[in-house]
Amino acid sequence: MTTSEPLPLPSGVVDAWINPNLGALTNAATALFPDLAARMERGTTLEQLIDEMDAAGVAKGVLCSGYAGDGDREWCVRARDRYPERFALSHVVDPREGMAAVRLVEELVTGEGHRLIRLLGLQTQLYYNDPAYYPIYAKCVELGVPVSVNVGFPGPHVPSKYQDPLPVDDVCAFFPDLKIVLAHGGEPWVDVCVKLMVKWPNVSWMSSAIAPKHIPAAILQYANTRGADRIMWASDYPLLTHERCLAEAVRLPFRDAAKLERFLSLNASAMFFA
């Protein structure tokens, strides 16, 4: 769903999910995104990433480590230290590691300044209300850091049921102070994602790995009404390029430029850079 005339691109655009390295991606994922294999083979230096962000009009980004290999965490920390005004940090944590995962969250947040902890049902093959996650949720509440959970059918060839967003309802009831971001679109359970945001004030939605032109109509309807402060853009770069995403985003049928600004800039800035 797009408009015929683009809205102006706001200043201060924030990409809420940027990967430095996606070596762990499967062929199934590369098949879903045109030109991804070539981008992965080329690799991306920090200088190239900054140049691409500048060319597209992206002011800031949330770097993601912990999924692609051991070296990406150090890469992300170095990038943030070099450009602290441009990058925030997030990390994928595996709750199946028990207290080691809890200690890792403490180290990430208090030691390195990470602003978001990510959890992937496609990796854990556990529903988000499984007891294994609860120590992570409790630590995140204690530290005041949000969690991101992937929802919807994943690209990799693993069972999809563990990314059903409905179990997040249990989590919200048990941890009402926990800020939760529903990442990766949520299809085919988009209506559940919207209901969770309507019901729980600390639940948001992120468009990671969803090209803006494919954002579900229910999400845009929610953003255009009472949910303008709950929706944020993320590319999941290099799955999607900044250039493509922003060219499509300005043509989305937002009712006005202020709502587009919340989607592309203000909501993520408030959560990850305040």
Automatic annotation (TrEMBL):
It comes from the Bacteria. PANTHER family: 2-AMINO-3-CARBOXYLMUCONATE-6-SEMIALDEHYDE DECARBOXYLASE, CATALYTIC_ HYDROLASE. Residues 54-272 form the Amidohydrolase-related domain. Keywords: Lyase. Gene3D superfamilies: Metal-dependent hydrolases. It comes from Sporichthya brevicatena. InterPro entries: ACMSD, Amidohydro-rel, Metal_Hydrolase. It holds the Pfam family Amidohydro_2. This is Amidohydrolase-related domain-containing protein.
